[in-house]
Amino acid sequence: MRRLRALAEGLGYRDVATYVQSGNLVFSANGAPDAIAVQLEAALEADFGFGVPVILRSREEMERIAARHPFHDRQDDPARLHVFFLAGDPDPANLERWHPERFTPDEVLVDGREVYVHFPNGMGRSKLTVELGTPATARNWRSVLAVRDLLHGLPG
Fold first, then answer.
1. Pairing outcome for strands 81-86 and 136-140
2. Where along the chain do its domains lie?
């Protein structure tokens, strides 16, 4: 994570922080989110030698996401609540073919570029697949809240 922070600082990003060994990077930067994502993807590939999709969320988006997990009242264990962050909007054709009710008892709600999931038996036992036609990355609820809290420490 030290190398990731150094890479972000080398791109001119400010207030750079990471959360454990999760790949979560928090920073301040000027520019359009899409341009920042492209710049960061190119730098990661050049520095680490492999491509990694970059999925960005603003402080405001993380606040909204952290405030509204629809299943938070069902589970005291944050390891059983997840958010899948999508790089783009889900493909409508994939949404039509994807039937999350097949994965009961897991509960799923697609909300724009986020997929909220409750894994009552744990993620490792789930048969759920999130194939919505765009890259995605999942974080458990503890990580979502920790990243949100890191964002509170950024200026402005």
1. antiparallel
2. 2-48, 69-142
H-assigned helices in 1-102: 2-10, 33-48, 59-67, 92-97
Q: If 0-12 CB within 10 Å is exposed, 13-18 middle and 19+ buried, where does residue 103 land? A: middle
Please tell me whether the overall predicted TM-score, pTM, comes out greater than 0.90 for this model.
Answer: no
**Residue in the block written with tokens 């986020």:** 114
Strand order in the sheet with 114-118: 107-111, 114-118, 81-86, 136-140
Q: Using one digit for the tens of pLDDT, what is the confidence trace for 45-74?
A: 999 999 989 999 999 999 999 998 899 887
Question: In terms of pLDDT, which residue wins out, 57 or 95?
Answer: 57
